[in-house]
Design brief:
mainly alpha
Length: 140
């Protein structure tokens, strides 16, 4: 178990580095590998969040939405998750949501905070109601 935790931390750090280098597919792969270890808690929340950041950059909004919902369940009220959720909500309403920030920060997911995560998650679910937005097997 300890080895899996170390491997998960390394994969999460690799994902953050891939995001910094704008290597979106590689970041998705590192996060998917980290999530396959099923560590749970903050480590999984970071992996879900970072994968969502990369998926947004790849234009895969529905998959990003699923990861953000998972991250919000694991770490309710996380500020970075909330910011990216609002970005997706704006895009779902027809705005481009691009005000110079996609909410990705450095991908650390360590901001914490007491946002309105649950309410954000409920509103974000409406993104899934849009045509063509279905779960694609990345989460759960």
């Amino acid at each position: 178990r300890l080895l899996d935790e170390l491997r998960g931390a390394c994969l999460n750090n690799l994902a953050a580095a891939r995001i910094e280098q704008a290597e979106w597919e590689e970041a998705v792969g590192a996060c998917t590998s980290a999530l396959a270890l099923a560590l749970g808690g903050a480590a999984s929340a970071k992996a879900h969040y970072r994968r969502a950041v990369a998926l947004v950059r790849l234009g895969r909004m529905c998959d990003a939405r699923d990861d953000l919902l998972a991250a919000d369940m694991l770490l309710p009220g996380d500020k970075q998750v909330d910011v990216l959720m609002r970005t997706l909500q704006r895009r779902a309403r027809g705005g481009d949501g691009d005000n110079g920030s996609d909410g990705s920060g450095d991908g650390s997911g360590d901001d914490g905070g007491s946002g309105e995560g649950g309410a954000q998650a409920a509103r974000l679910r409406s993104v899934g109601a849009r045509p063509g937005c279905q779960r694609r097997g990345l989460v759960k």
